[in-house]
Write a structure and sequence with these properties.
There is one protein chain. This protein has a single domain, classed as Cytochrome C Oxidase, Chain A, CATH 1.20.210. It has 13 helices and no strands. The longest helix has 33 residues. It has 410 residues and is an all-alpha fold. The chain is globular and about 55 Å long.
C-alpha cells in the first residue's frame, strides 16, 4: 500500500492536485461503491434515499450519470487534453475549483428535496459551472490543434450541458426530468467510443508488440466509429422525441449493428484475450448487446427494455470507467501497469453485475434478489478499485516525478 497523507489535502501543493485526474478519479472511485450500496439497501430494505424531484429512481440515475460518470469524464479530459493537444498540465487552482463544484453539486442535489427550488437551482448552477469550467480549460487547446482531431470531446461536453440544463429545467418546472438522463446516457455512449478509439490503439498494438506478433496492426477506423456514433445519436434523438415508438427500436437495432461492425476492427487473434484488450473489447460487447436488447424489446414488445438499458449503464458505462481509470490512473501517477488479479477480478464482477441486472427484467425472474445481487457485485468491483487505486491519487508519484506525464505502455 502506498504511503499517503490527508494532511494539507486542500492545499495546492498536496499530491492530490498534481494532476487533473487525481481528485476526480478519487471522487469516482469512492462514489461508485457508496452510491450503489445505498441503492442496494433501498431495494433490499426500503431504507430512505435523499428526497429529490422525481423520487429514488431519478436520484439513482442522476448520481450515476451526473455524479459518478461526470467525475470520471472530468478527470479523463483534464489529463488527456494536455496530452493530445499540448500546452502542459492544467494548474492546480482551476482543478480545485472544479472539484469544489462537483462536491457542491452533490450536496445541493441531495438536499433539494428538503430545501426546495432554491437548492435545486444551486445544484443546477454547480453542475453547469463544472461543465463550463471544463470547456473553458479544454476548448482553446482543442481548437488550436491545426487538424482539430479531438473536437469530439468538446461536442460531448456541449451535449452533456444541454442534457443537464434540460434536466434541471424540467425538475424546477415540476415535470419528470428522466428523459434528459436517458439522453445523457446516449452522449456518454458516444463519448466512450471517441475515448476508446484513442486508448485502444495504444493498448492493443502494445499487446501485439509484446506478444511478438508481426504483420498485424490494430486500427480504430473512423468510418466504422463515426457510423456507430451517428446511429447512437439517431436512437437517442428518437427516444427523446417519441419514447417507446417502434421507430426507436429499429434505430436501436441499427446502433447495435454498427457497433458489431465496429468490433470487427478488434479481431486480431489471441492477443485480444489479454487482460487489457479483453476488458476494452468487453465494453463494446455490452454496448452492442444493450442496444440490440432495447431494439428487440421495442420492435417485438418483449418487455425486456430495462435489461438493455442496464447492459449500457452497468455493463458498458461501468466497465468503460473502470477500465479507463485503471489504465490512465496508474499511467499518469507514474506507476507501472497493474499485473495483480484484482483488476480482472473487478472487471469480471462488473460483467456479472450487468448480466444479473439484465436478467432481473425478464418475466418470471426474482427481480428483487437479482437487483440487490447486481448492486452488491458492482459495489464489490469498485470497492476493489477504491482500495487499490485511491491511495495512488493521494500519494506522490512512484517515479519521483511531478505532473501528469504518463508512463510508457508496456
Amino acid at each position: 500500500m502506498l504511503k499517503f497523507s490527508l494532511r494539507g489535502v486542500t492545499a495546492p501543493g498536496h499530491p492530490l492536485w498534481m494532476c487533473g485526474l487525481r481528485p476526480f478519479f478519487l471522487f469516482a472511485a469512492l462514489a461508485a461503491p457508496l452510491l450503489m450500496l445505498l441503492w442496494s439497501l433501498f431495494l433490499a430494505t426500503g431504507m430512505p434515499l435523499p428526497a429529490v424531484p422525481g423520487g429514488p429512481f431519478v436520484w439513482h440515475a442522476h448520481e450515476l450519470l451526473f455524479g459518478f460518470a461526470i467525475a470520471a469524464m472530468a478527470g479523463f479530459l483534464l489529463t488527456v487534453v494536455p496530452e493530445f493537444a499540448g500546452g502542459g498540465d492544467f494548474p492546480a487552482r482551476p482543478v480545485r475549483k472544479l472539484a469544489t463544484l462537483w462536491l457542491l453539486g452533490r450536496l445541493a442535489f441531495w438536499l433539494s428535496g428538503a430545501f426546495g427550488a432554491a437548492m435545486l437551482a444551486a445544484a443546477a448552477l454547480a453542475h453547469l459551472a463544472l461543465l463550463a469550467g471544463l470547456a473553458r480549460l479544454a476548448a482553446p487547446r482543442l481548437w488550436r490543434d491545426p487538424e482539430r482531431r479531438h473536437l469530439a470531446f468538446l461536442w460531448a461536453l456541449a451535449g452533456l450541458a444541454v442534457c443537464m440544463a434540460g434536466f434541471y429545467f424540467d425538475a424546477l418546472a415540476g415535470a419528470s426530468p428522466a428523459r434528459w438522463l436517458h439522453a445523457a446516457l446516449g452522449v456518454f455512449m458516444a463519448l466512450i467510443i471517441v475515448a476508446l478509439s484513442r486508448i485502444s490503439m495504444r493498448i492493443v498494438n502494445a499487446a501485439l508488440a509484446d506478444a511478438g506478433v508481426a504483420g498485424v496492426e490494430y486500427r480504430a477506423r473512423p468510418p466504422r466509429r463515426n457510423l456507430a456514433i451517428v446511429c447512437i445519436a439517431l436512437y437517442t434523438a428518437a427516444e427523446f422525441l417519441v419514447p417507446g415508438a417502434r421507430l426507436s427500436g429499429w434505430l436501436a437495432l441499427a446502433a447495435a449493428a454498427a457497433l458489431f461492425n465496429l468490433m470487427n476492427d478488434w479481431h486480431i487473434g489471441r492477443v485480444l484475450f489479454r487482460r487489457l484488450p479483453l476488458m476494452l473489447y468487453g465494453i463494446y460487447v455490452f454496448m452492442a448487446a444493450g442496444y440490440a436488447t432495447m431494439g428487440v424489446a421495442l420492435v417485438f414488445e418483449t418487455g425486456a427494455f430495462s435489461a438493455g438499458r442496464h447492459l449500457l449503464t452497468v455493463g458498458a458505462l461501468g466497465l468503460a470507467i473502470y477500465a479507463v481509470m485503471s489504465i490512465a490512473g496508474r499511467a499518469h501517477c507514474g506507476t507501472p501497469f497493474e499485473t495483480r488479479l484484482w483488476q480482472p477480478a473487478g472487471a469480471a464482477l462488473l460483467a456479472l453485475a450487468a448480466l444479473l441486472r439484465a436478467l432481473s427484467a425478464w418475466p418470471g425472474a426474482d427481480t428483487q434478489v437479482l437487483l440487490v445481487a447486481a448492486g452488491l457485485l458492482w459495489t464489490a468491483a469498485f470497492g476493489l478499485f477504491a482500495w487499490h487505486m485511491a491511495p495512488l491519487f493521494l500519494a506522490p508519484r512512484a517515479d519521483g516525478l511531478s505532473g501528469c506525464k504518463g508512463t510508457a505502455i508496456p
